[in-house]
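Running co-folding for manganese (II) ion.
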Amino acid sequence: MADLRGWLSTLESHQLLFRVAREVDPRFELAAVLKRLDGSRAGLFERVRGHAAPVLGNALSSRQMVALAVGAKTPADVLQRLGHAVATPIAPVVVGRDDSPVRQTVEPTIDLGRLPLPTHHELDSGPYISAGIVIAKNSETGQRNVSIQRFQLSGPDRLGIYMAPRHLWELYREAEARDRALDIAIAIGVHPALSLASQVPVPFGVDELGIAGALLEQPVRLVRGETVDLEVPADAEIVIEGRILPGVREDEGPFGEFPRTYGPRTKTPVVQVTAVLHRRDFIFQTTLPASREHLLLGGIPREAALLDALRKVSPRVRAVNLTFGGSCRFHAVVALDKQVEGEPKNVLLAALASHSDVKQAIAVDSDVDIFDTDAVEWAVATRFQADRDLLVVPGAWGSRLDPSARGGVSTKVAIDATMPLGAAPMDFARIRIPGEESVNLDDYTGEGRH
Ligand code: MN
């Protein structure tokens, strides 16, 4: 099944699910256990203090899990799968209310405090929804947008929302300019293909649910909303419907974010919640901020877009990695088979310009494993000279969430760590021991072998 439960059984059959039977506190303890599991396994918390519903976290905690979620054979095939899904979307279908698990329960009164919202980090302002897939549309054209936003619990029927200046923000600004609220639906507990598709940087008007359908090889099932003029995922665990109010700003944050620093408290828009629908025995889902899941959800779709952009500059670009150290946003490593001198610098300039978040780009030859940070550093150590291989671009547009940028204005740097084409073969030859790969240490020890 293309829903969260189907994904849970896939995880379980691959020994990628850690079931937590002991009761956990949704304040810090749940996040602390997720942090320990980060990068290896999902965590399903069966008993959360004060709540009946279980909580899932780390749903996509490694590149291997992402590959599994989108039907790719290897992590390297994931970018190709994403590119293919963007090119050949499968439109969602609308199904009846009786055929929609998420409508099994429509809460008669709204009290978000009944949902097991975790508090993740020490200085967070309180409990948050961090794994909500937000659906909205342009009321005139009907064009849908899907994104992930963070929501602060501000009251029983009130959420603070922090929006990056992208498509949802534009929809809200258009509505607000006419003094209208913007209807939204927040789907929690969905197949991870939906989460990943929501992060693909496509232009406004491209339906991210169509990309999700292509990844799942079946249309995403939607149902008419209860109180909003939107279709919502019929197979979600929970859907919260509401309206982002015009002209209202309230305190939101601080909140621990992807750079592993806090986004500060600011005045942000507010969601008035109008309905809560859920499965009878729903599972709540959370994303631990700055976890592998959070970083990969942002990073992998960006890598796909980056690879595409760089191949327009040079078809000899082989692979890209937005590194974990750079929070899968800030630092790009590119492998290419250079054919002319200067080619890596063109590729690096394109990498810096491809997304505002990218502030450091390193080019290496394709013999270097770009997912091995030691190997990349070795290439910089042995194939890079700062006086001729470094580019510094001051005063560019970067990320507001980078604490070293000034209001988002950032200096970008490019490092060309490729070998010169005319070098003598011995100058850069890697040392190698013939026969090393086939050594089996057991053959060289033990009694009675000689
Ligand atoms: Mn969009």
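Result summary
DSSP finds twelve helices and 23 strands in the chain.
The radius of gyration is 24 Å.
Job closed.
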